[in-house]
Write a structure and sequence with these properties.
heterodimer, A: about 625 residues, six-stranded antiparallel sheet, 20 helices, globular, B: about 450 residues, alpha/beta, Gyrase A, domain 2, Four Helix Bundle (Hemerythrin (Met), subunit A), six-stranded mixed sheet, about 15% strand, binds guanosine-5'-triphosphate, binds magnesium ion
Chain lengths: ~625, ~450
């Protein structure tokens, strides 16, 4: 029985980390939005470890936050440990990482959705996407409800034809004991999409009471808590620790002895797994010489004894899992509460998408998150907010929001997906960003708040506050440029005390601050007029001065990149007409249909000679057209 | 640019050599060849297999007259230099029939190729990369034989190869920096600053080596720019003639004979010299005026070597002394000419005036000292010998510029290391250097490269 269930502007299928951001963005931009979840209790579930952030991922969180998204705020509300990683390295790669209370995180996000104006949340499995002509028209649920809508955002994560594998056992299922979404996969194929198959996995959860922490190294949170969200004020909270231990030769032996029972080697798993977080059996096989691997024991929440065992992700049979875990120091008597498993799922090959995350073939159909072949909550959230925004812009008939590679990690992420595709679950890495000194986690607000504000996702109050911060930074930098320090006797004394070389001629404080051995804080003696500024302002001033030369050079590099992005390729270009292109390149160009020379040059399989040919072809067309114009044709 | 028509040209240097080749490339090349080629067995060459050679005669289809006996090589696209159909006609009859064959080809549907056009097509059809294409352009413009060798070497990709090797080393540096940034919690082996320093230094050294070859490369390609200077009537033009072994410049005993600048190419011990005879420099005002002229100024600025000629039979005059002003820090050899005549020149004064310059006594008339002069030049520039054949030499200004920029970036990276800045700051300039190197091989698609494409290949309609 099919019945008409209602009309919406935007329907979001799935309420994981991508779906939540997409639904919130769309609703906050004033569109009537509905979000479907297979189970109301699973909104924003964290089926892997409840950690948010880390290198590059933390950057994504901050960017989503600056655009007006939820992941940062929700993490700040629910974290039980917060650490800044990479502090020994440059500011571009400092990375926040939070350990969240898993259940608390879900509860908070669920509530946020429930109280959001313009947004309805419904428990239903969507089995079909309706298309009229080349436009999306609605969705159908398993129970026969038909919802009409103008845009659909698909954020079904790893649910599409999910299959759980634990050793010799395997069954159809979603993560963490959920139902899979089997029929939607078919609907997507019927709509002409090419799907691939990936796998990912998770370790067992173990009982806190069965662990001997005295044999492990404690990893407490930072004493001074730095929140994710630019809106979060000073946070003080009691934190819990994580624990570090190592696998032993015994562990490796158990794995080796039971490899024949691992689905990875029995051929029970066809999907390709991520290189960046391999299962312990893969690590042991691939790095034979390494006598031990790290294992982090991380609490899943405050009011639970479940502990996550990072580093021991596995799909070995349950009995082997128990034996193997018990060979790790401190885990001799460990009790497994939930076994580790691998999950295989369908994903949509992301080169079928445009930069606004809309599919190339169907107008109004957007995709975001793990369905696009990525891994990680942060990657999902980043795509989610962009897809939600663009679905709304599509309906409002406005220009799409496309962030480029020099603007945001989000831009890098999406450009990579739609240009190169991915042959393993895609994880964001700082090394993927060419201009990362510009894309710091500390300046995400400076980069993106204005965009969020213009979209209506940042409140006027927040924007005003942000403007004030921006102005204070600018003024302080200008002031430091203007203040000259003379080589007077007292000044030289002070400098000597600070362990830096004396001055020959007067220099601006700005220049002095570039010296690695000098810090803003300890130059106060030379700078008595200084105002007391907020901490985040001082941080920006410090970074922008200390790395001034590097930032400038990187901006230069980014400028070159932008020039190539501006060389547009006409949408109606006929690649078959271009002589000299190699066949592989021609096929790739036809498949991806890059919008600019810059994008074309990033497609694998298109080499520089092909680009030269493409450029020359475009130049010829341009000249021909110009000539025609001049001849008044 | 028109890739549609068929082009033809004589593709061997015109000279006394026995064989000459007329090359035709384009979609009609085989059709054109069929019109003008007759084989003794009357075979239809349009039906022959690719990459085959046929014996026969080229005839003028208008009057059926035989022009030359030839070997015809037929190659079908795409396995050819231009990736188009190519026919090569090997003529044996010397220069006159060769030109006649070309004319006949042109009359029957081909168009005369512009200089470098075969290469342009090879490039545009994706057959060769930009650095290789540039090498060909160098070859075509090359005025010396050594220049030709370098061009050929580069065409085979020797420069690209070396650059790619450097790039690979830098990539390693970056990869290890990235790993330690992306996986801070993992117990992977983190790269040390020392290791980075070591590697960057090594690449810097190699870039410096390549850059040093740039000057050599320029000389080998364009010839060592050598200017003969001296007051009037000291024997400058006579010296030029003697080095050339022909009467190129007018020689008289009237001071001020040479009015214009005369340029000639000669070869001294394998080194190409572009030798320039100038008008004698007379008086103070005159010289100021002359030097003031932009053209002369430019000429001296670009000179690689000055040959300063003095007259042994004359006193050392103020005019001679003025020459020191030209020399500056340029390489120069002082020649005391006319040593066959009674000496009035005070050699001590000469030695004092040109204190750090080599002085050679010669007589152009009696052919004394000229061999010593040649040896000196060879010694000065190439330590006596040239080994260009297996050398990668930078001959292209754009390449030199790119290398220089890469060097600058790496020096900044070194500075960053010295300052104790974090690893990821180092990565910025190392990446900068990689981008610059990529401009040489064409891996970096940048504005400059585009400009280069458009200027080198004058893309018309
Ligand atoms: N005896 C003698 N006469 C020489 C020698 N070299 C050149 N002469 C003569 O010197 C005169 C001037 O020679 P040029 O070669 O015309 O001198 P120049 O320096 O070119 O003179 P301008 O062009 O007038 O500046 C001619 O009569 C030459 O024959 C030499 O080695 N010995
Ligand atoms: Mg003369």
């Amino acid at each position: 029985m099919v019945y008409h269930a209602g009309c919406y502007d935007v329907a979001v299928i799935g309420a994981g980390h991508a779906g939540c951001e997409a639904a919130l963005a769309s609703a906050r931009m004033g569109l009537k939005t509905v979000a479907f979840t297979i189970n109301m209790d699973n909104i924003a579930m964290m089926p892997c470890n409840p950690a948010v952030g880390g290198p590059a991922k933390g950057h994504l969180v901050r960017e989503v936050d600056a655009l007006g998204g939820q992941i940062g705020i929700n993490t700040d509300k629910t974290f039980i440990q917060m650490r800044m990683l990479n502090t020994g390295k440059g500011p571009a790669v400092h990375a926040l990482r939070a350990q969240c209370d898993k259940k608390h995180y879900q509860k908070e996000m669920k509530l946020t959705l429930e109280i959001q104006e313009n947004l309805d949340v419904k428990q239903a499995e969507v089995v079909e996407i309706l298309v009229e002509g080349e436009k999306v028209a609605g969705v159908v649920t398993k129970t026969g409800a038909v919802f009409m809508c103008r845009a659909v955002v698909v954020t079904t994560g790893v649910y599409l034809k999910g299959r759980i594998i634990i050793g010799e056992v395997n069954y159809s299922g979603g993560p963490n004991g959920m139902f899979p979404a089997n029929e939607l996969s078919k609907s997507l194929i019927d709509l002409g999409f090419k799907l691939g198959r990936f796998k990912t996995g998770t370790p067992a959860r173990v009982d806190r009471r069965s662990i001997d922490f005295s044999k492990m190294k404690e990893q407490p949170g930072n004493i001074k808590i730095i929140p994710f969200s630019f809106t979060s004020e000073h946070i003080e909270r009691e934190q819990v620790s994580c624990w570090l231990t190592y696998t032993t030769e015994e562990t490796h032996k158990i794995i080796q002895d039971n490899l024949h029972r691992s689905p990875l080697y029995t051929g029970n798993i066809e999907g390709i797994g991520p290189r960046y977080c391999p299962s312990i059996e893969t690590k042991v096989v691939r790095f034979k010489d390494k006598p031990s691997h790290q294992v982090f024991i991380e609490p899943e929440g405050r009011d639970t004894n479940e502990m996550y065992v990072q580093g021991l992700s596995t799909s070995l049979p349950e009995d082997v899992q128990i034996k193997m875990y018990r060979s790790v120091p401190g885990m001799e008597r460990v009790e497994i509460m939930r076994p580790g498993y691998a999950i295989e799922y369908d994903y949509v090959i992301p080169t079928q998408l445009k930069a606004n995350l809309e599919t190339k073939s169907i107008k109004g159909l957007f995709m975001a998150g793990q369905i696009n072949g990525t891994s990680g909550y942060e990657e999902a959230a980043a795509q989610g907010i962009i897809a939600g925004i663009n679905a709304a812009l599509y309906i409002k008939d406005q220009e799409p929001l496309i962030l480029d590679r020099s603007q945001a990690y989000i831009g890098v992420l999406i450009d990579d997906l739609i240009t190169k595709g991915t042959d393993e679950p895609y994880r964001m890495l700082t090394s993927r960003a060419e201009y990362r000194l510009l894309l710091r986690q500390d300046n995400a607000d400076l980069r993106l708040t204005e965009i969020g504000y213009k979209l209506g996702l940042i409140s006027p109050e927040r924007y005003k506050k942000f403007e004030k911060k921006r102005k204070m930074i600018e003024e302080e930098i200008r002031r430091l440029m203007e203040i000259k320090i003379t080589p007077s006797k007292e000044n030289q004394e002070i400098l000597k005390k600070l362990g830096t070389s004396p001055l020959k001629t007067p220099v601006a404080l700005f220049e002095l601050l570039k010296r690695p051995e000098l810090e803003y804080e300890n130059l106060e003696e030379l700078d008595p007029e200084r105002l007391l500024l907020p901490e985040d302002v001082v941080e920006q001033v410090k970074i922008q001065i200390k790395y001034h030369g590097y930032i400038k050079r990187q901006m230069e590099q980014a400028k070159q990149y932008k020039k190539m992005e501006k060389k547009k390729i006409p949408e109606n270009i006929n690649y078959d007409e271009i002589r000299g292109l190699r066949n592989e390149a021609r096929e790739k160009l036809k498949e991806i249909r890059p919008t600019s020379i810059g994008q074309a040059s990033r497609i694998s399989g298109v080499n520089p000679a092909d680009i030269s040919i493409l450029i020359i072809y475009l130049e010829q067309i341009k000249r021909k057209n110009k000539e025609r114009e001049e001849n008044g044709e | 640019m028109n890739l549609e028509d068929t082009i033809a040209a004589i593709s061997t240097p015109l000279g006394e050599g026995g064989i000459g080749i007329v090359r035709i490339s384009g979609r009609d090349s085989i059709k054109i060849a069929a019109k003008i080629f007759k084989s003794p067995t009357h075979k239809d060459i349009t039906k022959q297999k690719s990459h085959t050679i046929h014996y026969g005669k080229v005839i003028d289809p208008e009057n059926n007259k035989v022009i030359d006996e030839v070997l015809l090589m037929m190659m079908r696209a795409p396995r050819t230099y231009t990736r188009e159909d190519i026919v090569e006609i090997n003529c044996h009859g010397g220069i006159v029939p060769l030109k006649k064959v070309l004319e006949t080809v042109l009359k029957n549907g081909a168009r005369l190729a512009e200089p470098g056009e075969f290469t342009k097509r090879a490039f545009l059809n994706g057959r060769i990369d930009l650095s290789q294409a540039e090498a060909v352009i160098d070859l075509i413009r090359s005025k010396t034989e050594v220049g030709l060798d370098i061009g050929l070497n580069q065409l085979q990709g020797s420069l690209s190869g070396e650059i790619k090797e450097l790039d690979r080393e830098l990539l390693e540096v970056i990869a290890s920096i990235e790993a330690s940034i992306d996986f801070p919690e993992h117990d992977i082996e983190h790269i040390t600053v020392e290791k980075v320093r070591e590697k960057v230094e090594r690449v810097l050294d190699k870039i410096n080596e390549l850059l040093e070859t740039a000057d050599t490369g320029k000389i080998l390609k364009e010839g060592l720019k050598t200017i003969i200077v001296g007051k009037p009537n000291v024997g400058k033009s006579s010296l030029l003639n003697a080095l050339l072994r022909e009467q190129r410049a007018i020689v008289t005993d009237v001071p001020g004979t040479t009015r214009d600048i005369i340029e000639e190419y000669i070869n001294i011990k394998g080194i190409p010299l572009k030798i320039i005879d100038t008008a004698g420099i007379r008086e103070t005002e005159d010289m100021v005026e002359k030097i003031g002229v932009e053209r002369t100024k430019e000429l001296f600025r670009q000179a690689d070597l000055l040959l300063i000629v003095l007259d042994a039979s004359d006193r050392f005059t103020e005019e001679d002394e003025l020459l020191t002003k030209l020399v500056n820090d340029k390489k120069a050899i002082v020649l005391i000419n006319k040593t066959d005549l009674p000496q009035r020149l005070d050699e001590d004064v000469v030695r004092k005036t040109f204190s750090n310059k080599k002085i050679i006594k010669i007589s152009v008339k009696e052919n004394i000292g000229l061999d010593r002069l040649k040896e000196e030049i060879a010694e000065m520039f190439f330590k006596g010998k040239i080994e260009s054949r297996d050398l990668t030499i930078i001959t292209n200004l754009r390449h030199k510029e790119a290398l220089r920029n890469a060097k600058e970036s790496l020096e900044k990276a070194m500075e960053t290391i010295e300052l104790g800045m974090p690893l990821d700051c180092i990565a910025i300039d190392v990446t900068g250097a990689r981008n610059r190197l990529g401009e040489i091989t064409g891996d970096t698609v940048s504005e400059d490269v585009l400009d280069q494409i458009f200027t080198q290949f004058c893309i018309g309609k």
